[in-house]
Structure formats: structure tokens, C-alpha cells
Amino acid sequence: MKYDFDEYIERRHTDCIKYDYAEAPCADLLPLSIADMDFRAAPAILEALEARVKHGVFGYTRPGKDYFEAVSSWFRTRHGWEVEEESIVPSCSVVFAISALLRATTREGDAVLICPPVYYPFERAIVQNGRKTVLSALRLCGGRYELDLTDFEEKIVQNGVKAFILCSPHNPVGRVWEEGELRAMGEICKRHGVFVISDEIHADFVYEGHRHIPFASLEGMAEICAVCTAPTKTFNLAGLHISNIILPNEELRARYRRELDKIGYHDPSTMGMVAAKAAYLHCADWLDELLVYLKGNLDALREFLRNELPALRLIEPEGTYLAWVDCRALHLSDGNLQTLVEQRAHLALDEGYIFGTGGGGFERINLACPRATLLAALERLKKALAASPASTV
Fold first, then answer.
1. What's the pLDDT at 389?
2. Is 256 helix (H, G, I), strand (E, B) or coil?
3. Which end of the chain has fewer CB atoms within 10 angstroms, the N or the C?
4. Range 264-281 average pLDDT
């Protein structure tokens, strides 16, 4: 391989949230939790950032035509989606944009639907903006999560839902929604006047046999949605604060921009725009190699669980670099499972219960790390489970 994803990059004492826990339960905590990657950014990105630093002037900056062309080109070549440049609204982050979109398209007290177990900042954004959370939980059927469309529509009608936050691909369960599923969701939302906020930040991480379909690319759906995208997951740039919100509907786009003006803080960073443009223009080969490496990590996890920890069950991911592992056969409460992972295995994973309904008894494991790190973490978990009197392993 051209790029070295096995390289260990020391991130402690760099103010990295993932590693510098203020109240870590142990000094040697090994984190496979927060969804950024332990890989150095692609060389073309580093070169672009270095060139900008050497220029030495960091005044107010706005994206130019070349920036919008780079973003549009990525979605055209990578996902077969023609994005009109005027529909792209750069922003500082997807999480920020979701809150702004909620304020632009709903009123206080309005109902907003999510499908747990799901990325927990969704509910936080709903609650903190004075909206009401409505849940249509995913069902685990034969090792694969599905959306109950009957329940989905009933919840929309019963609660007068005004917006739906879609996670596509789905974090944490790893589903890559099929065209028929997306179309069914969209038709229900369209029928009942529900605005769709589609978080597609994991869109570039899809495994063989699956294809990410941008929600707005479906016929008739562009006018009722905002698609939230960013290069930050794909190229490990989260600290540079850059995202691109795609709003094909001109009226809704204007409402969103007015909401941004009210907030007064929304622009992406200068270095984020530099990095994003370099990533989208010059780093497709880096991503292709990364996807191969991540598949190797997934294979290693699957084999380890099968051979060493058979009580734990991998929910096969179709996308993302996050593994959703069913630990319910251990018969531990969420609190005891967390204690075992953190205080006995000295690992930081994301406990399933934080993702809401249906998440209890699961752990989310970040696979975007050197393979040696992943295997070391799994060995810690094996040792902790073997020593645990509560364990059934």
C-alpha cells in the first residue's frame, strides 16, 4: 500500500478529546470511542495546509468558485449525484447545522422524529432547541436492523411530526439504507409535510455489496430535505471545522441562511476550507486504500470475536468505520458492562445505552485505528471478561 495506516500516532497531550480524558478511570485507558480516526491526514491535505501557513495571512476568508466546484465534483464522481453549486452552504459542522436547520424549519414545541438507537446528539439538538422528541425505534431482525414503516408513519401522524432526522449511513448500527427504504421514508414524509434532515457524514464509508444513495438524489425528494455532508469523517479533519449543507430548495435555503445570520457564528474555518478542497480534489486514492485497511480491521474483529469471544456478536456493518457489538449474552447491566470495559479492560468504548432505545447491552467500537491497537484492545477485553465472575464467557 502507498499509505501507512499501521503507523502509530501519539495523540495524548495534544488536547485530543478522544485521548485526553479529564476524569479517565485509569491512566492507561485505550480509547476506541469517539468517531475520529487515528490516522495521519493524507499528504495532499498536509501539503495544502503547509502552503497556506507559509502564506502567513489568515484574514477573513470565504469559499470561492473553485471550492464549490471541488465539492460538487466529489459527489458527482463518488456518488453519481449532480449537486448544483448554489445549493451548497458551507458551515462549521454537521451537528451545528442540524440545530440551525431545526430552528429554520420548525417552531418551539414541534415534534421531531428520530430512529434509535441513533447518534445521541440528534436528541440533544431537539431537546435543547425546545422541540419534542418522537421515537420510531429500529428493529433488529435476523442480525440486521430495519425501520418499521408502519410505526414510522403512525408516529408522524399521531404526534404531528414536522421534521425527521435521518442518519444515512446509520450510526451506530451500520445500516446503508437501500433505495426502496429511503423512498418509502421519503414518500411518508412528503405525504405528511415532514422536512427531512439527512445526516450523511459517513457516506464515503460503505462496504462491498452496498451503495450509499444521497437522499436528495431520489426523484421528488430534493425539495423536502437538507443533506448534511462533510469531509471531516472521511479525511479525519474534525478539528478543522468544515461541513457542507446541501439545500436544493431555494426557499428553505434562504430560511436556513436567515437562521445562520441570527446566530452570528456559522462560517467554516479558513484551514478547513483549504483541507476540504485538497481532500476532494486530490485524495480519492488515499480513501480507497483506507477503505481496504478498514475492511481488514473489520475482518480482524469478526475473527477475534468468533474465536476468542463467542458470547459477543458483531452486527455486520454495511457502512461507517464503527462496529456495533451485541454484549447482551453476558447478562450484565449497562452499568456493570461499562465498569467491566473501563475499569477492568481499561478501554473507552461508546456504551450502547447512550444511543437511546434499543442500545442497552451493546458497545460501539471505533475501527479507524492501527490494527495493532485494535487487537491490543480486544486482548484487554478478553482478559477482563475471563477474570470477571459475572461473565458467561
1. 61
2. helix
3. N
4. 93
- All 3 cell numbers of residue 239? 478539528
CA angle 83, 84, 87 (to 5 degrees): 100
Q: Residue 360 CB: number of other CB atoms within 10 A?
A: 17
Bridge partners for 163 per DSSP: 112, 195
Contact between 128 and 175 under an 8 Å Cβ cutoff? The reply is: no
Grid coordinates given for 61 = 476568508
Q: Are 45 and 70 in contact (CB under 8 A)?
A: no
C-alpha 8/C-alpha 214 separation (Å) is 34
Of 90-94, 352-356, 385-389, which gets the smallest average pLDDT? 385-389
Residue with cell 414524509: 189
Which triple of cell numbers denotes residue 350? Answer: 461508546
Cβ neighbours around 44 below 10 Å, total: 17
pLDDT at 16: 85
Predicted confidence (pLDDT) per residue in 326-379, tens digit: 999 999 999 999 999 999 999 999 999 999 999 999 999 999 999 999 999 999
Question: CA-CA distance, 386 to 201, in Å (whole number)?
Answer: 37
Closest CA to 38 of 2, 7, 1: 7
List alpha helices for 309-344, DSSP H.
Answer: 334-339
pLDDT in tens, 214-259: 999 999 999 999 999 999 999 999 999 999 999 999 999 999 999 9
Q: Give the CA count within 13 Å in the CB-facing half-sphere of 23.
A: 0
CA–CA dist 246, 97 (Å, integer): 11
pLDDT above 70 coverage of the chain, percent: 97
- For β-strands 350-351 and 347-348, DSSP reports them as unpaired
Amino acid at 379: E
Provide the Cα torsion 279, 281, 282, 284; round to 10°. 80
Distance CA 189, CA 306 (A): 41
CATH code for residues 30-42+284-387: 3.90.1150.10
Of 3.40.640.10, 3.20.20.150, 1.50.40.10, 3.40.50.150, which CATH number belongs to 57-282?
3.40.640.10
Tell me phi and psi for residue 61, to 5 degrees: -135, 140
Mean pLDDT score of the chain: 95
